[in-house]
Amino acid sequence: MSEFNKTPRLVLLPAVDVAGGKAVRLTKGEAGTETNYGDPVDAAADWADQGAEWIHLVDLDAAFGRGSNAGILKKVIRQVRGVNVELSGGIRDDASLEHALEIGAKRINLGTAALENPEWAASVIAQYGEAIAVGLDVRGTTLAARGWTKDGGDLWQVMDRLEEAGAARYVVTDVTKDGTLQGPNVDLLRQVMDRTHRPVVASGGISSLDDIAALRELVPLGLEGTIVGKALYAGAFTLAEALDVAGY
Prior knowledge:
histidine biosynthesis, isomerase, cytoplasm, EC 5.3.1.16, 12 helices, single chain, amino-acid biosynthesis
């Protein structure tokens, strides 16, 4: 165990996914698979009280192009002042990006826009640097866009383009694992880290403290953190336990 304790810390980002004004979790990102977990403001406050340094906040309605939870996102960010918020979902142009930063998001996670509008993505990466992460949502080696309903091209080709644009960070999700509690796709994470010197954040499939321990072992290879969702909401472990395993 002593060797493990010397491993650098893994940053944990508890997820708050918002749809129809409620905190929800999806299975494999599919609309219609929502499990409702109540008020997103309460959920975020709960994670903050338990020691979260970051929260991964997602507007699912904006991601699916079926509406917006902008008012609630603003309330969430205000509620957890002092906690860093990474905001994701439907940020596809200057107006939505600037609004996200104005309401207090520390980091913006670009998904569809990075795939469908590479010139714009490159310009905001150049302009905002560390404030922009790029979400790589993957099935096999094919990227998923538009709330994971459309193919977004080949992972490695898109990554080459993003590396050239100077992307500061990647958030990598195996869509087939997300919300399934089947464990993270470590092979995919290793392949991505082999292709970049930028920090990588893992997402999807975390089911146990053992999964968090396994991801922490990848920190020396370039894994910076992991988003944790359904396992926390389902009570598989507490955030305090997860933070302990992650090295906090």
